[in-house]
């Protein structure tokens, strides 16, 4: 594919610019280099702004009545950038070049089925090297090619946090509180992002960026909304409370720009008709910190000199005001679409992660019950718009949706191409923690029953978030439905609490004192510390070589689970180096508000570039690692990374990534899991895994198995035959696994 430059050259302020000329000049993009077999076609390119257009902060009052301040905020705003991008693309015939209506998970998987999930704050780089510079380094991509990694999900790298007066304030949520389309200088430059994409393309890889359709930070867009300027209030669920109702509002302490409403105030404002009140749940609930999903500003002079107080919705933290997808201005939609197009057509990403995309609709109930805020049809509609726009310009999307399996199916049927595997991620971790796959088999079968296509899932190990319980399917959507488990009949509510308690008992407290419960959502830990707790290794300082070898085996088992099934497998840097949690004392300031996830986000040196550094450039303390950096691992055939490369090579050769899960049979040992997949050429593939510490010999039985020879994909050898009863036997070591195909008789 070729690109079309749609960049104007003027350096005048945006308010004075004319519309870009229709005259365009084609040049070759790295997408054409990546996909030689595709017919050549043009792809538009657009720039969010132009060199020299950023205005310095004038030495005037940061006040809505000061026109210079308002104009400065406009120059920083995402909505203004979105308008600039939109005018360059509007009416361009190339915006109709791609099919876009239906999600296409297998097309996304075929682009890249093995991802490295980065976290900008935690990567230790060489001296003078930025995060983006490190991700574009040839040596890293050579290592990734050796292992079998085909894509980098960068994590959020754009400016985040807020603006107070003329000053930027830091991020409060790991850069998921975005305030700009500009790359944060902490991580590099836009040119380094584009160079990273070029390097990835030369190795057949792609770059996956993030957008956040659910909220922003308190940046220029929010400040302009407070100033009641232009369409900016329409970006948010922002309610102008009349002065005669200010008596209902709490005072905002000096030095703060908002305060969270308590339950009584929320109820009073709802009774008065100003807000819709209580929502279905309070995410990140913390007494005295976040008791409701609403906060209020102090009195603020708007751009016309009118004193106003606003109440605003935030599903997440107070500094993450929620975007309103159904405001008459559609300003929030325009902002999000502009951010997506900037990542794809300006920076050159191939795909986008949609963060917090399940919370895009909220509606008042009619029976005084909590407002409808989860599984709302507006979320599906908004996700279809985002997914369609991204597909329209040749990209793909994936969602990280922590709702019910039904919601994942419904949203994935119209919106994103791929969905994060919240279906089985907690279940396979429970299987390891308890050496029992019953709950994992139950969730896999439930997903099959409800129509989940495993090839549409991103099967991930650790990421920046906690080991989430993600049991909303059972705890909420199917709370009263009865499920068979552990020899009993349990309601969804009972099953969810049983699993939560099992996770807490086996992974925290005396079992894993280095792990931590994270609010009501899950457990803060690394994959390695999940395993050590499951193995009964309570003292991380006393791990022996034999202990580490056992951890490695169990870690590779989890990799096999995620790799030997249809869909994407995603690995974090913490996985690749075997990171352990930080001591709480190392991140005391970061976890003081209850966000214990920071213990799992320790810094790591993926390429052994700076062994003397004790922190990343962003200030994250270095974590202890069990496996070391990739160069030393790849020089050792018995290392985690070298053994992982062989697993991923088997995956690649088998074609299982684009297959279809068709059966999850019963097992003769509780530690076993059997998955039967149908590949694209109709070959039957069988994955057999042992989540226990004892070797087993077991019979594999399924009606989906044809009579024929059983072939080990690792060796190519015939290891048995499927008999007339539809089964065969297999031997597995402790934490062992195998991928097999059936060659039909005759």
Automatic annotation (TrEMBL):
InterPro entries: GH, Trehalose_synth. Keywords: Transferase. Residues 1-60 are annotated as: Disordered. One of its GO terms (molecular function) is transferase activity. The keyword Transmembrane does not apply. Residues 40-50 have a biased composition (Basic residues). The keyword Flavoprotein does not apply. Residues 1-12 have a biased composition (Polar residues). It comes from the Bacteria. NCBIfam families: TreS_stutzeri (TIGR02455). This is Maltose alpha-D-glucosyltransferase. It comes from Propioniciclava flava. The lineage of its organism: Bacteria, Bacillati, Actinomycetota, Actinomycetes, Propionibacteriales.
């Amino acid at each position: 594919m070729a690109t079309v430059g749609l960049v104007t050259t003027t350096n005048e302020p945006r308010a004075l610019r004319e519309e870009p000329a229709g005259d365009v000049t084609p040049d070759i993009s790295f997408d054409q280099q990546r996909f030689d077999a595709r017919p050549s076609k043009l792809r538009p390119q657009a720039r969010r702004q132009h060199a020299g257009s950023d205005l310095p902060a004038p030495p005037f009052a940061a006040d809505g009545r000061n026109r210079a301040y308002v104009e400065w905020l406009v120059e920083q705003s995402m909505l203004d950038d979105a308008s600039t991008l939109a005018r360059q693309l509007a009416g361009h015939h190339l915006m109709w070049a791609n099919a876009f209506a239906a999600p296409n998970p297998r097309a996304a998987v075929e682009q890249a089925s093995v991802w490295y999930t980065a976290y900008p704050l935690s990567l230790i780089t060489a001296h003078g090297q930025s995060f983006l510079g490190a991700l574009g380094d040839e040596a890293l991509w050579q290592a990734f090619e050796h292992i079998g990694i085909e894509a980098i999900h960068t994590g959020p790298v754009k400016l985040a946090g807020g603006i107070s007066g003329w000053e930027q304030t830091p991020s409060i949520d790991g850069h998921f509180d975005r305030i700009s389309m500009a790359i944060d200088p902490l991580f590099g430059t836009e040119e380094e992002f584009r160079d990273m994409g070029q390097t990835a393309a030369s190795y057949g890889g792609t770059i996956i960026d993030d957008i956040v359709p659910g909220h922003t930070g308190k940046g220029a867009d929010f400040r302009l909304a407070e100033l009641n300027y232009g369409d900016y209030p329409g970006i948010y669920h922002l309610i102008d409370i009349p002065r005669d109702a200010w008596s209902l509002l709490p005072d905002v302490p000096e030095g703060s720009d908002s305060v969270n409403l308590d339950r009584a105030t929320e109820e009073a404002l709802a009774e008065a008709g100003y807000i819709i009140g209580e929502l279905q749940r309070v995410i990140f609930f913390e007494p005295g910190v976040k008791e409701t999903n609403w906060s209020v500003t102090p009195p603020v002079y708007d751009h016309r000199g009118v004193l106003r107080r606003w109440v605003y919705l935030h599903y997440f933290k107070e500094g993450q005001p929620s975007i309103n997808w159904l405001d008459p201005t559609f300003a929030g939609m325009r902002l999000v679409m502009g951010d997506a197009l900037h990542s794809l057509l300006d920076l050159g990403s191939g795909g986008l992660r949609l963060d917090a995309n399940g919370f895009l609709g909220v509606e008042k109930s009619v029976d005084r019950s909590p407002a409808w805020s989860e599984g709302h049809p507006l979320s599906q509609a908004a996700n279809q718009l985002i997914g369609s726009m991204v597909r329209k310009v040749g990209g793909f999307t994936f969602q990280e949706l922590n709702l019910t399996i039904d919601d994942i199916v419904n949203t994935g049927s119209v919106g994103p191409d791929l969905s994060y595997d919240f279906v089985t991620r907690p279940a396979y971790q429970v299987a390891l923690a308890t050496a029992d796959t019953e709950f994992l088999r139950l969730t896999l079968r439930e997903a099959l029953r409800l129509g989940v296509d495993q090839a549409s899932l991103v099967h991930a190990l650790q990421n920046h978030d906690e080991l989430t319980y993600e049991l909303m399917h059972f705890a909420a959507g199917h709370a009263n439905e009865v499920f068979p488990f552990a020899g009993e009949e349990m309601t969804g509510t009972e099953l969810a609490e049983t699993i939560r308690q099992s996770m807490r008992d086996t992974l925290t407290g005396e079992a894993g004192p280095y792990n931590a419960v994270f609010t009501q959502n899950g457990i803060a830990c690394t994959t390695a510390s999940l395993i050590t707790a499951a193995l009964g290794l309570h003292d991380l300082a006393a791990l022996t070589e034999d202990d580490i070898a056992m951890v490695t085996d169990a870690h590779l088992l989890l990799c096999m689970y995620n790799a030997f099934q249809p869909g994407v497998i995603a690995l974090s840097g913490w996985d690749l180096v075997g990171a352990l949690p930080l001591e709480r004392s190392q991140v005391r300031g970061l976890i003081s508000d209850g966000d214990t996830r920071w213990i799992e986000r320790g810094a790591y040196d993926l390429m052994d570039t700076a062994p003397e550094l004790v922190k990343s450039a962003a200030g994250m303390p270095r974590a202890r690692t069990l496996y070391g950096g990739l160069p030393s691992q790849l020089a050792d055939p018995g290392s985690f990374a070298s053994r992982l490369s062989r697993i991923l090579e088997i995956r690649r050769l088998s074609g299982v990534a684009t297959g279809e899960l068709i059966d999850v049979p019963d097992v003769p040992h509780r530690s076993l899991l059997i998955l039967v997949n149908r590949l694209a050429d109709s070959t039957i593939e069988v994955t057999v895994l042992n989540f226990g510490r004892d070797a087993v010999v077991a019979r594999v039985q399924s009606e989906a198995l044809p009579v024929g020879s059983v072939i080990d994909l690792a060796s190519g050898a015939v290891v048995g035959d499927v008999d007339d009863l539809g089964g065969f036997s297999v031997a597995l070591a402790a934490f062992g696994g195998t991928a097999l195909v059936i060659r039909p008789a005759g």
